[in-house]
Design brief:
The protein is of the alpha+beta class. The chain has helices spanning about 10-20, 30-35, 40-55, 80-100, 140-150, 150-165, 175-190, 195-205, 235-260, and strands at about 25, 55-60, 65, 105-110, 110-120, 135, 190-195, 205-215, 220-230. The chain folds into two domains: about 10-75, Orthogonal Bundle (Arc Repressor Mutant, subunit A), CATH 1.10.10.10; about 80-260, GAF domain (Beta-Lactamase, 2-Layer Sandwich), CATH 3.30.450. Helix 1 (about 10-20) crosses helix 3 (about 40-55), helix 4 crosses helix 9 and helix 5 (about 140-150) crosses helix 7.
Length: about 260
């Protein structure tokens, strides 16, 4: 506990800034009211203060507020992706050395899985992805594996968010019962596969993936996949040969992440 009482006005200002950022960096007062529960007069005062400090600007139509580049200063001392990547990098490199196929590890961020580490080679036929790449939740095995093992509340929130997104793989989110049945099937089999339409649009149907969750206490904390060429490995063979070692690798990553750097 701190030795002083928190400054409530400062806490409200931080809540408003976090809400603007959560709403993809641009929000109206009404959206912020729904997100934070603060009254609109308080939200306006907090926004005016944040504008004065240079963290927020009003758009040219005066209908919404946007975060500025200055907000990057708030996270410049901590790079979560890089810190986690240093831990998982050697583990997935060893997995690739053993099986010959590369992997990605990603963590959940609002409506996508953010890549934090990959063992793909730059310029390889499997298409390089850099840390920070946002993989769609319902299009990729990373997203599906994570979501299937997330809490019911988190699943509902994600399905709500992606419903409005036009991609074909999000159509199932509009039928909640069907989506939950699909995710339950993934939980039962213990792994997910890439949506065929995502394979077509991103890889020309040449590549597919198998994804598994990285679990702590039975709940998703991240996800891991393995990529393979369809022409070299039929899906049934990929599942038969790689799901078990992929799960073992995910367990190793979970242990390393919960143990921390020490």
């Amino acid at each position: 506990m701190g030795s002083y009482k928190p400054v409530n006005a400062a806490l409200r200002g931080l809540d408003v800034l976090a809400a603007v950022n959560k709403l993809k960096g641009r929000a109206t007062i009404g959206e912020l009211h729904r997100e934070t529960g603060l009254d609109k007069a308080t939200i306006v005062r907090m926004l005016e203060t944040l504008m004065h400090a240079g963290f927020v600007v009003r758009d040219e139509h005066h209908t919404a507020y946007e975060v500025t580049g200055k907000t990057l200063l708030l996270c410049s001392g901590y790079d979560r992706h890089r810190a986690v990547g240093r831990i998982v990098g050697p583990i997935i490199a060893a997995f690739r050395n053993r099986f010959g196929w590369p992997s990605d590890v990603a963590i959940f961020d609002h409506d996508a899985m953010v890549l934090i580490e990959s063992s793909r080679d730059a310029g390889s036929i499997l298409v390089n992805r850099l840390p920070g790449y946002r993989a769609p939740m319902l299009g990729t095995s990373l997203g599906l594996a994570y979501l299937a093992f997330a809490s019911a509340e988190e699943r509902a929130e994600v399905l709500d968010r992606v419903t409005a997104m036009p991609a074909v793989w999000n159509e199932i989110a509009r039928d909640r019962a069907k989506a939950e049945d699909y995710l339950a099937g993934i939980r039962n089999q213990g792994y997910a596969t890439m949506h065929e339409e995502y394979s077509r649009t991103e890889y020309g149907r040449r590549i597919s993936t198998i994804g598994v969750p990285i679990l702590v206490g039975g709940r998703s904390m991240a996800a891991m996949n393995v990529l393979y060429l369809k022409s070299a490995l039929p899906m049934a063979e990929a599942v038969a040969t790689m799901v078990a070692p992929l799960k073992a690798c995910a367990d190793e990553i979970a242990g390393a992440l919960t143990a921390g750097p020490g």
